[in-house]
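A reminder before we start the practical. When you read a complex entry, don't treat the lines as separate problems. The point of joint prediction is that each chain is placed relative to the others, so the output describes one connected object in space. Small molecules and nucleic acid strands, if listed, are placed in the same frame. In the example below there are two entries. Take a minute to note the order of the lines before looking further.
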Amino acid sequence: MKIGILGTGNVGRTFAEKLSGLGHEVTLGTRNVADKLAETTTDYMGNPPFSDWLKVNGSTRLGTFAEAAAFGEIIINATNGAGSLAALEAAGGKNLAGKVLIDLANPLDHSHGMPPTLISDLSNTTSLGEVIQETYPDVKVVKTLNTMWCGLMVNPAMIAGGNHVNFLSGNDNEAKQTVKNFLYQFGWKEDRLIDLGDITSARGPEAYLPLWLRVWGLKKTGAFNINLAE
Amino acid sequence: MKIGILGTGNVGRTFAEKLSGLGHEVTLGTRNVADKLAETTTDYMGNPPFSDWLKVNGSTRLGTFAEAAAFGEIIINATNGAGSLAALEAAGGKNLAGKVLIDLANPLDHSHGMPPTLISDLSNTTSLGEVIQETYPDVKVVKTLNTMWCGLMVNPAMIAGGNHVNFLSGNDNEAKQTVKNFLYQFGWKEDRLIDLGDITSARGPEAYLPLWLRVWGLKKTGAFNINLAE
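Here is the predicted structure of the whole assembly.
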């Protein structure tokens, strides 16, 4: 399938590599293509310059947010949560209309120091996933995978034999099934996918981030997740 | 030991039963003793009238919040989070001073319907645990066990052989060790207790509640918890 990924950071690159390896066609979207290709320094997350990454991932195309959105039959929001609404606006409602949008982002606010808090306008009585759905009512938003490090998102078998959980929230059951089919390609087990309900249920997995961040601070690695004991 | 428990709901009763069974002396604190004993109806959580419970738990005393706090060498906050600060004020700073306060409460706001949200003044950039610690600087607040149903708090072996996790947050390491010693009496395993750090880390476990509430809505039972996969 043709996949448009919004965001060229660690999450976007991880999905581009995985999806290309699975035989999908990928266009990564960014704000300004020339600026992105001109970057020569490692970013604040430790990612090498994008052009270096592109050299070894030549099957991935780079375009504007709008070009990536127009290209994709399915769209993945891999931008940081604070920038997601602006990126989607740049992508353009008409390029997103009718498509499944897999929303991986977390609305983190770094302005209070470390660890970040949630962005107050995008949390508690709402969530980023909900706001995206409200802003683009003809897009099929599915919130998923935001509760873990991106390395695990596309390779759950990396830890505990893949026996840990991932949540899905969204209003459209067919769209959630489409997303599950991708998750199975990554190695997710059917019985570890928890459909929490409609998009308002994204409040739960997004609100989990402050706990994830604390555990991450202890573990010094993202290679952990939660499993349900029952 | 002498334990003062603030709150006579399901959580307070569960701890009173367990702690009495372990040989501790328990006083449960409530706002108004006469009113509590006069209740004749099942409460909104399905708890039978308190006097009925007291008939079969005769070793537990009932007192005011202040009497329970004065009685306890250790205090347990088992009130609902929206009422915790008022209950502690009624308990009185001088009755709490220098003691370990085990804070089980969650700052839930039911005013937006079900599932509840967090109380905005007690979440995200702060937490109930932190606000209690700031309000009573000479109390040793330890946030723990708030991420699960009370039945599991005192009986973790009920599910998954006790292989699931509980978090601790608090500024005083000796107080956290005191709390761990209680947790071991309940059957908690040392390697499933995660010390998240100082009391500001209570933001994480409190923010987890919206996710817990969604999973609880699916499971229709509180007999589940999370475990770490790594």
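Discuss with your neighbour: Chain A touches chain B through 39 residues (CB under 8 Å). What might explain this?
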